[in-house]
Each structure stands twice: as C-alpha cells, then as structure tokens.
Design a protein that fits this description.
By secondary structure, this protein is mainly α. The protein has two domains: about 5-60, 434 Repressor (Amino-terminal Domain) (Orthogonal Bundle), CATH 1.10.260; about 85-115, no CATH class. It is about 55% helix and about 0% strand. It has seven helices and no strands. The chain has helices spanning about 5-15, 20-25, 30-35, 45-55, 60, 85-95, 100-115. The longest helix has 15 residues, at about 100-115. The chain is rod-shaped, with a radius of gyration of 25 Å. It starts with a helix and ends with a helix.
Length: about 120
C-alpha cells in the first residue's frame, strides 16, 4: 500500500537511526528496510509488529488507518441474530400495547439505548 513506506521512514528517522542500525535492531537487512521505506516491497507481518513494538504505535497507525499513533478506539457493538425466534418475540412484545410487560420493556429499551450512547 502506497504511503506506508513514508510512515515507516518517518518513524525510523524520528530516532535518528540509520537504515542499517535499525535493521540490526529488528533483525532485518538494510536493503529490506530501504525497500519497505520506498514502497518497493511490503514488509511481512512480523516486521510490522516489530515496528509497532519498537515505536510503541498501533498497527492502525502503520497501515495509515489513522494519524493517531495510539490507533483507533473501537466500541464493540453486538450484532443481533434477526432470524432468532426469541428476538422476534421480544420485539413483538415491546410494541404490543396489550402486553403486560409493555411498560417494563419500554424502560429497558430506553435504558439500553442510553447505555449505547456512552
């Protein structure tokens, strides 16, 4: 992916290390580091991990998904199995005004939605 090499080069230069010295640190060769930094070849996963560990940055940062070295914070959002019969029954009960659980279900859903905004 174009641009990753520039990110790798910038990280290495931030420590004022030569390609040769950095290659020794991570167990690679100077010629390989040169190819990675010039987008002539893509580093294997192990090399990306070594960059991330050495510079204490996230893989998101190395892969240009963010400009924040710590990476992207994800919030887990569970996916519901909409084919599940119990799920369909629950939804039907929530919107059935005759259901004895209607008010309780409304409050539960409201609280669930409020918690989801945090």
């Amino acid at each position: 992916m174009k641009g990753i090499g520039e990110r790798l080069r910038t990280l290495r230069k931030s420590t004022m290390m030569s390609q040769e010295k950095f290659a020794k640190v991570i167990g690679s060769s100077q010629s390989a580091i040169n190819r990675y930094e010039n987008d002539q070849s893509e580093p294997p996963c192990e090399i990306f991990l070594k960059y991330a560990d050495y510079f204490n940055v996230s893989m998101d940062y190395l892969f240009l998904r963010t400009n924040v070295p710590e990476g992207i914070d994800y919030e887990f959002t569970p996916r519901f199995d909409t084919d599940n019969k119990q799920f369909k029954q629950f939804i039907d009960m929530c919107f059935d005004p005759e259901s004895p659980l209607n008010e309780k279900l409304k409050k539960s859903l409201y609280n669930l939605l409020l918690d989801g905004d945090k």
